[in-house]
Amino acid sequence: MTDTFIIGTADGDGNADASHRGGNPGFLRLLSPKLLRWPDYLGNSMFMTLGNLHVDPRCGLLIPDWRTGSTLQLTGTARLNWDESTFAPGAQCSVDFTIDEVVETINGSPLRWGHAEPSPANPPL
């Protein structure tokens, strides 16, 4: 279970943006073999990621495994889910991500880290 990933999006003109998403391990949930969901929390109030997904739902996720150096690269489409019954505590919405393609890179990074202590500021799952 990951505690972090990077999401890449683009605006209507194709200008790319990459943003960090993080939380307690398990905040990124697998709902089915092709569907992920994560809570979206208020960040810097610029709404770059959510705005980009509203205009163009195509996006990519990079999920690092800090212990092994491996990564998962997922491409697909995201849908902003405003149904409050899907929200985690403190979330402003949920994001549902439909997976189109998966690329796993074993030992993609030479760097290794041990288990990280979650921030006490992380919202509960």
Which helices and strands occur, and which strands form pairs?
Blueprint: E1 4-10, E2 16-22, E3 29-32, E4 35-40, H1 48-55, E5 58-64, E6 71-81, E7 93-105
Antiparallel strand pairs: 1-2, 1-5, 3-4, 4-7, 5-6, 6-7
Observed structural traits:
1 helix; mainly beta; seven-stranded antiparallel beta sheet; 125 residues; 6% helix; Pnp Oxidase, Chain A
Your description of this structure?
- With 125 residues, the chain is mostly beta strands.
- The protein has one domain (4-105): Electron Transport, Fmn-binding Protein, Chain A (Pnp Oxidase, Chain A), CATH 2.30.110.
- Helices cover 6% and strands 44% of the residues.
- It has a 7-stranded antiparallel beta sheet with strand order 2-1-5-6-7-4-3, with helices on one face.
- The chain is globular, with a radius of gyration of 14 Å.
- The two termini are 13 Å apart.
- InterPro entries: Split_barrel_FMN-bd.
- This is Pyridoxamine 5'-phosphate oxidase family protein.
The coarse silhouette is globular
Number of strands: 7
Relative helix content: under 10%
Task: Give the H and E element order.
Answer: EEEEHEEE
**SS class:** mainly beta
Spatial extent as radius of gyration:
14 Å
Q: Mean of the pLDDT scores? A: 92
Measured distance between first and last alpha carbons: 13 Å
Largest sheet: 7 strands, antiparallel
Q: Looking at CATH, which topology would you report?
A: Pnp Oxidase, Chain A
- The oligomeric state is single chain
CATH architecture annotation: Roll
CATH class: Mainly Beta
Order of strands in the sheet with most strands = 2-1-5-6-7-4-3
Overall number of structural domains: 1
Percent strand equals: 35-45%
CATH superfamily membership: Electron Transport, Fmn-binding Protein, Chain A
Residue ranges: pLDDT <50 for 5 or more in a row?
none
Question: Total number of helical segments?
Answer: 1
Protein name: Pyridoxamine 5'-phosphate oxidase family protein
InterPro entries: Split_barrel_FMN-bd
Organism: Mycobacteroides abscessus subsp. bolletii 1513
